[in-house]
Structure formats: C-alpha cells, structure tokens
C-alpha cells in the first residue's frame, strides 16, 4: 500500500495573507495556473480547489448570498458553502475536499493530502460485537485502555508525575493497577511529544519492567521520542500517516497528522471487526478537518487552558479582569466548536477526555484560580441539546464502556460500568517535593558557575536573524528576581548579548523564569513548552504581538541533540589553565624588556 503524501499547492507570504478579506477569496498559483478558494471566517481559514465536484466547473462569487459564504458553479449553478464545505444546491449532495491550511510566521500554505480520506481504503463491513468483546476503560487524562478481543491497546499513558516541568498534575486518581495494565499492553500509542502524553515518569516504570513493550508513533518531522536518552525503550515503531497498520485478522489502526501542527501532533483511528474508534487527542484540525463520519466511538479534548496565554502575561492590558473575560470567551468558543464538530461527524458515542489536569502546586494557585476550564458535562450537555442521536459519556477513572452493549442499545444502563462508590476519583497528593527537587538540582550544576554558558547555549539553539531582544531573568517561585541569579539580554538579530537594549527599533520580550525549571531546560536542551505551557514564567512584551517564529523555534525546532556541556566545561578549563601561563609569559617578557632597555 502506498504511503500517504502531502503536497504544498499554494503559498502566501504574510503580506498576501494580510490582504485576504473576510469571506471569499479567489487565488491562482502563478506557477501552474491552478485556482483555489480561501474562505476567511471568525474561526480562521478554510480552503479548497476552485473546482466543482459535480462536473469540474469553475466557481464564482454567488451574488445572491448576502452572508459572503457561498460560491456558484459556472456550469450548472451548483452552490458551495465555504464555511462548511458542503454543497447547498443541491442540498445533501457532496462534501468538498478541503485543503490543509498551515500558518507559518504569518504566511499561509495550502497542502493537499493524498488520499484525502485514507480510512476508506480496504473498507470492512461491521461484524456483530459480543458483550464484553470490546471494552474501553478510562484511566486518567488522555489515557484510555481498549480491550479489543484478546488484545489491549493503550493511549497516551500519563499515570504518574507532573507534566510540563511542574505546571500540570493529574486531576484524576488512576486505578491502582494502571501501571500494571500499561506494562501488559499489546500496543501503546503516543500521540505527540507533549509531556501530558509522553510522560517520562510513567515510561521510566515501563522501561524498567518491560522495555520491549510495542509503542507506536506517527512519522512527525519532530520525532515523538526526540530525547530517547531519558528512558531505554527498545520497541518504538514509527509508522507512516494515513496507512492502515494491520495487527491481526480483525484489528488495525491508522495514525493521521494534524493540519495545524503537522510537525508534532497526530490522531488515530482504531478499527476492530469493522467498528471504528476515532481519537483526535489534542489536534487542532485533525487530518486537515477531514474525518470519518458515523464512527462508533469518538474521543477528543475539550477543556482548553493548555497555554500560558494570557495567564502568565503582565503589564499593559493584562489585568485580571481582562484575562478573566478573554478566558471566558475562549472557553465558550472552544465549547461551541467541539459541539458543532461532534454534531457534524455524528459518532454513535462521544467521550470528552484529555483535559483532566490541575495546577496543583501551591506556588501556582494564581494560575489555578485564573485558568478556568471547560467541564466535560457542559460539553456533553451542549451536544445533547444539538442532537439526540449521539450518546455522550463523561468518564470517571476506572469506568468501563462496553461498546457492543452500547451500540445494541444506547439506553442500556449496563453498557457503562462506573467505579465503586468507595473509589478515589480525584487526587489529593502529588509528591511535589520528589519532582520539584529533581528540577532544582539543576540550579547547582557546574555549568552555571561560568557566565559564558549563556553564549554557548543560545549558539547551540541556533535562532538568529530576527529583530527581537529578549531579557531573561532568573527568579524564585514567586517570580521575584534572584540577587545571585542571571539577568541578561539576548539580541536575536545578530545573536549578541548586550548589557543594554540597542538603540535601533526592535521588538522586546521580558521573561521571568523560575530558576530551577529554566536551568533544567537549559542543561538538558529541553523545549520551552515546560516554561510556557507549564506556567513557569511571566511574560511582558513591547509591542504586544506574538512572535511565532521565536516561540515555534524554541518550542518545536531546537536541535534534537542537547548542548555538549562536557565540551563547554573542557573549554572553560583550558581557558583557566591557559590564563596563568599567559600571565607568567607576559611577566617574564616584561622583565626581559626592562633589562634590555636598561
């Protein structure tokens, strides 16, 4: 079977993107003359080829559409609503093949996936499921265990420890045997490299007990296991996108890329006896927005709050009231988007997950109070208001869904088995000291006794030729600057380290970072997600604009091999040894010159 391919069919730079008007925009690729339509709406961009699915006619603007969302075919007057990519004349006919839109530093690339609906390859008719044949058990956050006949398939096991340094902690208490289940799994899927999915404290247990456990990840440009030195796992399988992976006669799965973050995010379809389970995980636009309809079970994230913006920002407009209003509106938009997505896909059963985390550490009480998230029950209620055809499930740790029973009779109360009333559902202790102490051990590392680590680190990071000056300030847990901490400037235009801001016009960021986390990130060459998504810094910016190129580099594009600190320390020692010799040489030379003159 051919691997799935993707091709950039049209690229617009930031200037061209800024000229796109709200509603319908017609564009032509100057290289090959092919035509495309870009729709700009409140939710972002949608794009497709300018070609009617009926008989290949060209679309023009529909002057009868006052809403500015519809185009009309010049051949037979078929009409396409670009905001939904559905044909409205005739209604209920076709769905337009949508291109994947990738935003990069203000520019826009339109990407065509081939094939667009890869799950349609080798279709299988659903077979009857017996009671107990397919069971889905919720463990915690994004971790689900699927019993599929005689095999067990586990998703994204974060079962212990924090995520994003020390910023995220598990909300739910996993079942007591969760780690045993992980170590006994036949297949493990890890969707992406974020530490609430790729949990090294959890995988450390797996590597000690069963290092050859079969793990499957997508072929992202940033490898999921880009830092394999943290654990010793010997059976990591990287699979191509959009291709069925056959496990046995009845079981197969397919990993697909995200349309917004194809370099790192993935989602998965698992099929057993013709019954599909769709897990979109954290994808913003899974598979570029093209997903199978009427799957038997769909799972997705729902909560929001997985970003440092705006909670960690200060100065200017970022008052507590502004933040609260912004977060409220974003939550509402996310809830509406998820509800409409589920309604449009019409799964038989829907389960919100991958949002059950809490900012539990006492030092992050402000974030916990400010970063209000959506509730799973609220999303399910909204879906139920939109349609009565979808069974919704709000999972509890250890709860089990019997898919066969639920599909046979959605009203069957025995289809879902909840944990006993005595079961502990929510965590109330997290071993803070164990994990925070591990991070803080970096503070006393030898490399930070030598100020030139700064130049060594940012040279390794490899980001420059960008007119941005960043001030980095090491702080305590309350974001108060440390008297003996580093406070320095980095000018990324020429990768210099000035003592004052340059006179030229430039953008400016001020980052106050908790010293233990910052030094741990630097020492291990970690991605800055630990700082930004983990709420471990406070940010001020002038002007108040998002620097995508900067953040994208430090969050996804740092070198996969960490800084060579041994080489750095050797160079420091050479300098220390060389300096006394040079001093002795100059002293002898001076005495010689004095004698010579006399």
Q: How many distinct helices?
A: 13
For this structure, the quaternary state is single chain
The name of the CATH topology of the largest domain is: Metallo-beta-lactamase, Chain A
Count of discrete domains = 3
Keywords: 2Fe-2S, Iron, Iron-sulfur, Metal-binding
Pathway: Amino-sugar metabolism; N-acetylneuraminate metabolism
Domain Rieske: 12-110
Protein name: Cytidine monophosphate-N-acetylneuraminic acid hydroxylase
Short description:
By secondary structure, the protein is of the alpha+beta class.
What does this 3D model show about the protein?
This protein has 598 residues and is an alpha+beta fold. The chain has three domains: 108 residues, Rieske Iron-sulfur Protein (3-layer Sandwich), CATH 2.102.10.10; 247 residues, Metallo-beta-lactamase, Chain A (4-Layer Sandwich); 122 residues, Nonspecific Lipid-transfer Protein, Chain A. It has 13 helices and 32 strands. The protein starts with a strand and ends with a helix. Its EC number is 1.14.18.2. This is Cytidine monophosphate-N-acetylneuraminic acid hydroxylase. It catalyses: CMP-N-acetyl-beta-neuraminate + 2 Fe(II)-[cytochrome b5] + O2 + 2 H(+) = CMP-N-glycoloyl-beta-neuraminate + 2 Fe(III)-[cytochrome b5] + H2O.
What attributes characterize this protein structure?
single chain, 598 residues, alpha+beta, Rieske Iron-sulfur Protein, Metallo-beta-lactamase, Chain A, Nonspecific Lipid-transfer Protein, Chain A, eight-stranded mixed β-sheet, seven-stranded mixed β-sheet, globular
């Amino acid at each position: 079977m051919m691997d799935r391919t993707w091709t950039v069919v049209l690229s617009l730079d930031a200037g061209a993107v800024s000229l796109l008007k709200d509603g319908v925009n017609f564009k032509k690729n100057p290289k090959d003359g092919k035509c495309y339509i870009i729709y700009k709406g409140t939710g972002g961009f949608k794009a497709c080829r300018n070609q009617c699915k009926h008989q290949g006619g060209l679309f023009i603007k529909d002057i009868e559409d006052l809403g500015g969302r519809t185009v009309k075919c010049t051949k037979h007057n078929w009409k396409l609503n670009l905001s939904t990519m559905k044909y409205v004349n005739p209604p209920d006919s076709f769905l337009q093949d949508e291109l994947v839109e990738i935003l990069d530093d203000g520019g826009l690339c339109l990407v065509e996936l081939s094939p667009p609906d890869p799950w349609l390859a080798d279709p299988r008719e659903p077979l009857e499921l017996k009671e107990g044949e397919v069971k889905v058990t919720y463990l915690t956050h994004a971790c689900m265990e699927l019993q599929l006949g005689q095999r067990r398939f586990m998703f994204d096991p974060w079962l212990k420890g924090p995520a994003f340094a020390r910023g995220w902690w598990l909300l739910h208490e996993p079942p007591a045997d969760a780690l045993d289940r992980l170590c006994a799994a036949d297949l493990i899927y890890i969707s992406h490299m974020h530490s609430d999915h790729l949990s090294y404290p959890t995988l450390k247990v797996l590597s000690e007990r069963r290092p050859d456990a079969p793990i499957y990840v997508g072929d992202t440009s940033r490898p999921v296991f880009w830092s394999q030195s943290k654990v010793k796992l010997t059976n990591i399988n990287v699979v191509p996108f959009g291709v069925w992976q056959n496990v046995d006669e009845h079981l197969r799965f397919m990993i697909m890329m995200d349309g917004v973050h194809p370099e790192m995010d993935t989602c998965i379809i698992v099929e057993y006896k013709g019954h599909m389970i769709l897990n979109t995980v954290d994808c913003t636009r899974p598979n570029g927005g093209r997903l199978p309809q009427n799957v038997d079970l769909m799972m997705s994230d729902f909560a929001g709050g997985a970003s440092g913006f705006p909670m960690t920002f200060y100065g200017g407009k970022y008052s507590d009231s502004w933040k609260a209003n912004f977060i409220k509106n974003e939550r509402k938009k996310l809830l509406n988007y998820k509800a409409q997505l589920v309604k449009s896909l019409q799964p038989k059963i829907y389960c919100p997950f991958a949002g059950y985390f809490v900012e539990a550490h006492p030092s992050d009480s402000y974030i916990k109070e400010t970063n209000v998230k959506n509730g799973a029950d609220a999303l399910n209620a909204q879906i139920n208001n939109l349609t009565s055809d979808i069974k919704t499930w709000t999972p509890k740790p250890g709860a089990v869904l019997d898919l066969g029973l639920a599909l046979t009779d959605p009203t069957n109360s025995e289809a879902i088995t909840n944990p006993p009333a005595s079961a502990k559902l929510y965590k109330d202790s997290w071993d803070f000291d164990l994990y925070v102490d591990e991070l803080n051990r970096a503070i006393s590392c030898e490399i930070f006794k030598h100020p030139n680590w700064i130049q060594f680190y940012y040279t390794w990071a490899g980001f420059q030729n960008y007119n941005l000056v960043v001030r980095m300030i090491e702080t305590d847990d309350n974001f108060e600057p440390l008297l003996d901490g580093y406070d320095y400037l980095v000018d990324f235009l020429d990768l210099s380290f000035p003592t004052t801001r340059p006179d030229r016009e430039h953008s400016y960021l001020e980052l106050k970072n908790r010293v233990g986390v910052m030094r741990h990130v630097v020492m291990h060459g970690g991605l800055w997600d630990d700082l930004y998504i983990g709420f471990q810094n406070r940010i001020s910016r002038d002007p108040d604009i998002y620097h995508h190129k900067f953040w994208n580099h430090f969050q996804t594009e740092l070198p996969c091999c960490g800084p060579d600190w041994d080489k750095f320390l050797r160079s420091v020692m050479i300098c220390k040894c060389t300096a006394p010799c040079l001093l002795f040489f100059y002293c002898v030379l001076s005495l010689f010159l004095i004698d010579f003159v006399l």
